[in-house]
């Protein structure tokens, strides 16, 4: 058995010529390629050397669409909404990770998680109250908030139930970990607003409350509030979408999604945490010994291969393996990829910029020889922490947990080139 067969293929230098194998070469007037195999040039009405239909008449007017939308040929690139969940009360939709490139999630595809629906808030009537252990309680309008010095930063937000420990059977990358998205956020550092009110020495927590029907409430430790926490009003350059907390939300880079309170109406500065529903009966982690961990703020290092990934199909020969990695603790320092089900690992290229608490894109050139195999990725962050496999994770955490599952995700590749979830028996 050759090494290539055993390993499910070889790793390739991207400098290699003829990456597409048979290629799209024009041979003696005939196009020879993988897609238009050995067809006569001109046999496709809109293909070379014919003039395509869309060149023969002027296109649509400028401004035919005052707010732009994707090409009608991209209709399948939409949020992934799980069926059978009571959407009106405990709703979520997932980002189609396998359809996206780069590290920024378009606003219309940002994942959603709502506990009481999406309120329609008039920013002219919206107020933020800052009170509790402060020198000067404040009631701020959105105009007041926009007068503070602003800042823009790129960060991911990830739901801590992404996915639950018993929910590893999804078909696509989105089914498995689509509750993560990344945007450029603009707003005011939370410490600036707290300084305006003046913190009293006993201040240890800030309890944030949303203006939705769930009145979602979370206690934020004061250290985070005085570090990189922000109150944000814009997302990828435009005002927040209603789904993301319009007109104002909390952004806690690297902390579990639930703490990033949307539709923010109140910051109550306290000496003790509130022990709200979302930090007691929910968003705590049951351990094998019957105890529960509370306040597990950080999202640990994680990665997933998004292409090729579940439900896609690959051809033999050259394939680029690409995906995303992220860590709530800081920068991603390394992503390793295995093309032989974890026997050996190769360091992938990281696409700049590699930002703290942001999605990081990785890539590895690969030549698949047609042998069935499994491909995996594992991330390391700047603390030296390495993403565990599911077995190692559940040895520590057991199976009573729901939140904070950052296990390595294997994609199985069948002889046909079909890609499927390696957690599900073939
Ligand atoms: N007010 C309020 N804030 C909220 C929620 C909510 O239901 N109400 N959901 C939380 C949860 S569980 C998550 S994972 C994130 C989701 O943010 P997104 O919908 O912008 O992706 O918002 C958090 N903030
Ligand atoms: Mo969440």
TrEMBL record:
It comes from the Bacteria. Residues 296-408 form the Moybdenum cofactor oxidoreductase dimerisation domain. PANTHER family: SULFITE OXIDASE, MITOCHONDRIAL, SULFITE REDUCTASE. NCBIfam families: sulfite_DH_soxC. Its cofactor is Mo-molybdopterin. Keywords: Metal-binding, Molybdenum, Oxidoreductase. Residues 1-22 are annotated as: Disordered. This is Sulfite dehydrogenase. The keyword Cytoplasm does not apply. The lineage of its organism: Bacteria, Pseudomonadati, Pseudomonadota, Alphaproteobacteria, Hyphomicrobiales. Residues 115-276 form the Oxidoreductase molybdopterin-binding domain. Pfam families: Mo-co_dimer, Oxidored_molyb.
